[in-house]
């Protein structure tokens, strides 16, 4: 049988997995979420790249840091092997650190989409156990599990989660405001050191008890998420969150 005839999944190296997960074309549903950017634009808070820069930096230090922490913790758990109950605890602890119901739903929607893609791309017993315990896992948890079960390090999972926290809204800004893609990419590139710092801090606590993990947050982002969901139900919006 030729390689093209085989239906068996091909093992993917951990570095490649991080690239696949961070790719905007990955079918995890991230393209329909703006991370609060659309609501901020609608309220006149963001007009151009000068406004976008602090928004992305703030989102990285809040949502990005939180998702990085839990992605790193999930990668650490997937690599060492844990009981099914651990996944429920990790997932519920992320829930507890996400006060906005709209943000919780957006995270679970992306988590479920990512889980479906992962089940088709590289199924594993670890993934099956996670989904048996939490059928709609939070997005950073499933990101970490995929990374850890493929041999990736907690810092790899954290980097992916942190990057997605800013790359999604950055892409949304181009579509919503017609900004120069090169200028927007430059803003994201200038966050490289901050991204590394966030990933490093997340990896440092990856082995901690889930109940002791950090809980960074930003009330303004929570309020934007709630407003976006309400308006999305009332009128046509480009993004679900």
Automatic annotation (TrEMBL):
Gene3D superfamilies: Urease accessory protein UreF. Residues 98-120 are annotated as: Disordered. Keywords: Chaperone, Nickel insertion. The keyword Chaperone applies. The keyword Chaperone applies. This is Urease accessory UreF family protein. It comes from Prauserella halophila.
């Amino acid at each position: 049988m030729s390689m093209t005839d085989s239906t068996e999944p091909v093992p993917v190296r951990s570095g490649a997995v991080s690239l696949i997960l961070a790719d905007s074309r990955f079918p995890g549903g991230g393209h329909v979420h703006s991370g609060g950017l659309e609501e901020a634009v609608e309220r006149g808070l963001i007009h151009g790249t000068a406004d976008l820069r602090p928004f992305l930096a703030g989102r990285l230090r809040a949502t990005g840091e939180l998702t990085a922490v839990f992605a790193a913790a999930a990668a650490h758990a997937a690599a060492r092997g844990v009981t099914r109950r651990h996944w429920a605890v990790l997932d519920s602890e992320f829930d507890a650190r996400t006060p906005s119901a709209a943000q919780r739903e957006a995270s679970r929607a992306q988590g479920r989409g990512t889980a479906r893609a992962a089940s088709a791309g590289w199924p594993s017993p670890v993934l099956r156990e996670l989904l048996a315990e939490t059928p709609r896992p939070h997005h950073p948890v499933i990101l970490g599990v995929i990374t850890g079960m493929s041999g990736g390090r907690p810092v790899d999972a954290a980097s992916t989660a942190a990057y997605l926290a800013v790359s999604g809204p950055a892409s949304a800004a181009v579509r919503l405001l017609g900004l120069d893609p090169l200028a927007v990419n430059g803003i994201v590139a200038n966050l490289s050191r901050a991204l590394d710092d966030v990933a490093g801090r997340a990896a440092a606590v990856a082995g901690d008890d889930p109940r002791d993990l950090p809980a960074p947050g930003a009330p303004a982002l929570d309020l934007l998420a709630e407003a976006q969901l309400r308006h999305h139900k009332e009128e046509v919006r480009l993004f679900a969150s």
